[in-house]
C-alpha cells in the first residue's frame, strides 16, 4: 500500500490519478495508523516551503515521517514535496526542512524566465532504480521558482534550463525526490511511478 500524505498543500487528485493509471490504488491520508502501515510514502506539494513545514508540524507528521524513513520505507517527494526533504529552504523566510537529504533550496536567481515552466530533458548522473524505465534525454514537466542545491552524491538527474543546471531528481537511501511532476509527465512520468511501485512491492 502506498500512502499519499495529505497535508493541505498537495495536488492530490492528479497524483492519485497517476498511480491509478499504472494499476495501483494509492490512499490519501494523514492518519498515523494508516501511514504506519504504508509500504511506500509519497509527499506531493504545491505552495510555499514554510507553509508545507507548518502543516506537517500541525498534523504531527514530522516525527512520524522521520520514523518511517528510519524504518527504511521508500519515500518519494514531488515538487515542493521534494524540496522539504532538504535541510532548509529560503522561500519567504529561512525554514528548517525535514533534513532527509543534505542541501538547501533557494530562489532561482537566473537570467531565464521564472517560474521555470515546461518540458525539459532529463540527464542522468547515476543509475537509480527510479529511472530503470527512463532513457537519457527524455522529457519531463517542470513548474517551479525555487531549486535544490545538492551534492553530486545525492544527485540522480538534472535538466538544463538555459545555462542553469536544475536539480531534477535526488536520492538519499530510501528517500527520493522529483522536482518535476511525474504525474504530468506523460509516459516518462508513468514509468518513474511504475519503478517506485516496484521498489515498494519488492
UniProtKB/TrEMBL annotation:
GO terms for cellular component: cytoplasm. Residues 3-196 form the Glutamine amidotransferase domain. It is found in: Cytoplasm. The lineage of its organism: Bacteria, Bacillati, Bacillota, Erysipelotrichia, Erysipelotrichales. It catalyses: 5-[(5-phospho-1-deoxy-D-ribulos-1-ylimino)methylamino]-1-(5-phospho-beta-D-ribosyl)imidazole-4-carboxamide + L-glutamine = D-erythro-1-(imidazol-4-yl)glycerol 3-phosphate + 5-amino-1-(5-phospho-beta-D-ribosyl)imidazole-4-carboxamide + L-glutamate + H(+); L-glutamine + H2O = L-glutamate + NH4(+). Gene3D superfamilies: 3.40.50.880. This is Imidazole glycerol phosphate synthase subunit HisH. GO terms for molecular function: glutaminase activity; imidazoleglycerol-phosphate synthase activity; lyase activity. Keywords: Amino-acid biosynthesis, Cytoplasm, Glutamine amidotransferase, Histidine biosynthesis, Hydrolase, Lyase. Its EC number is 4.3.2.10, 3.5.1.2.
